[in-house]
Fold:
Amino acid sequence: MNSYTLADLAVGTTESFTITVTAEMMDHFYAITGDNSPIHMDADYAAGRGYPGRVVYGMLGASMVSTLAGVYLPGEHCLLHQVDSKFAKPVFIGDTLTVSGKVAEVNETFSQITVKFTITNQDGKKVTRGVYVAGLAK
Structure:
């Protein structure tokens, strides 16, 4: 776990990690949210819509931003204030995602940073992008 403080960070600071989406992750997400949309639960239904398998919950992928912020950028001193996500392409079970963030702004007045993030799949295709604002210790 990183422990960046506001003084440690500058525009351009980057961090990233990778994770592979599993069926168990999907099951856990369903257990938490109760979202039983057939596009996420039924491979045959998803295939009928033209997808190669169950579509991973967009918010499951986007939830990796919590890990990016709370573990990597800035890490232990983080408190997320805002997250804005855009879902560019679907994610599927077995996809390996690279979650990357780059500091776009350091605001000393409010002790917060703005980070632009992207999530790309194993083929280098951007599946999610967005911005988060995090408060942290000076």
About this structure: The first helix runs from residue 23 to 33. Strands lie at 14-20, 79-87, 96-107, 112-120, 126-135.
